[in-house]
Amino acid sequence: MKVYRISKTEYAHDLTGTGAKLFGGRWNHINIPCIYTAGSASLAVLEYSVNVNVAFVPRHLSLAVFEIEDQSVYHPRELPADWAAVPAPLSAKDLGSGLLHDNISVIRIPSVVIPAEYNYLLNPSAAGKAFRLLEVQEFCYDMRIKS
Predict the structure, then answer these.
(1) Residue 4 bridge partners (DSSP)
(2) Could you say which DSSP state residue 115 is in?
(3) Which residues 6+ apart lie within 8 Å of 112 measured at CB?
(4) Phi/psi of residue 65, nearest 5 degrees
(5) Which H helix or E strand runs over 135?
(6) How far apart are CA 32 and CA 45, in angstroms?
(7) β-strand 106-110 against 73-74: which pairing, if any?
(8) CA–CA separation, 129 vs 117, rounded Å?
(9) pTM score, two decimals?
(10) Tens of pLDDT along 112-126?
(11) Structural domain for 119, as ranges
(12) Torsion angle (degrees, nearest 10) of CA 70, 9, 115, 79
């Protein structure tokens, strides 16, 4: 299965999860590396859009395409009741960080933007990674999305 990530071009090939490690995210605490991806390129654009201020959209973006092993995808049975709250609740960060710490390679979680679609957390610290970077394409962000 293919999953997608929009990022600054300078970080497109980074497979260490440093950005999420430095700043945390909905599903991880600071100091827990993670690569956030989406189940489609369009969902990746939406996820990027809700998480960036229009004044800070960089000129050089890339779309990274990953391949993940379907049999390695973990689906949490239950999510915290407040998982979709804004800002991201501690309960979601605790769940995701725990799964990443438990060496789960790929975690499927619903998107807050479109709950019927899924994001995939890739664990760069997992032994025997179940994902690989296939390609990186230049991506031109259409500013009409944010205007």
Answers:
(1) 38, 65
(2) T
(3) 26, 50, 83, 84, 86
(4) -115, 125
(5) strand 131-139
(6) 24
(7) parallel
(8) 23
(9) 0.95
(10) 999 999 999 999 999
(11) 2-145
(12) 70
Please, are residues 42 and 31 in contact by the beta-carbon 8 Å criterion? Answer: no
For residue 75, count other CB atoms closer than 10 A to its CB.
9
Residue type, 117: E
Distance CA 26, CA 86 (A): 9
Per-residue pLDDT of 48-73, as tens digits, reads 999 888 778 887 899 999 999 999 99
The length of the chain is 147
Copy the structure tokens of residue 128: 């025997």
Give the total number of structural domains in the chain.
1
What DSSP letter does each residue of 17-59 carry, written as one string? -HHHHHH-BTTB-TT---EEEESSHHHHHHHHHHTS-GGG--S
Instruction: Look at the block and give the residue holding tokens 């489609």.
Output: 40
For residue 87, give the amino acid letter: P
pLDDT per residue, tens digit, the chain (147 aa), is: 999 999 999 999 999 999 999 999 999 999 999 999 999 999 999 999 998 887 788 878 999 999 999 999 999 999 999 999 999 999 999 999 999 999 999 999 999 999 999 999 999 999 777 999 999 999 999 888 877
Q: Tokens 């600071």 appear where? A: 30
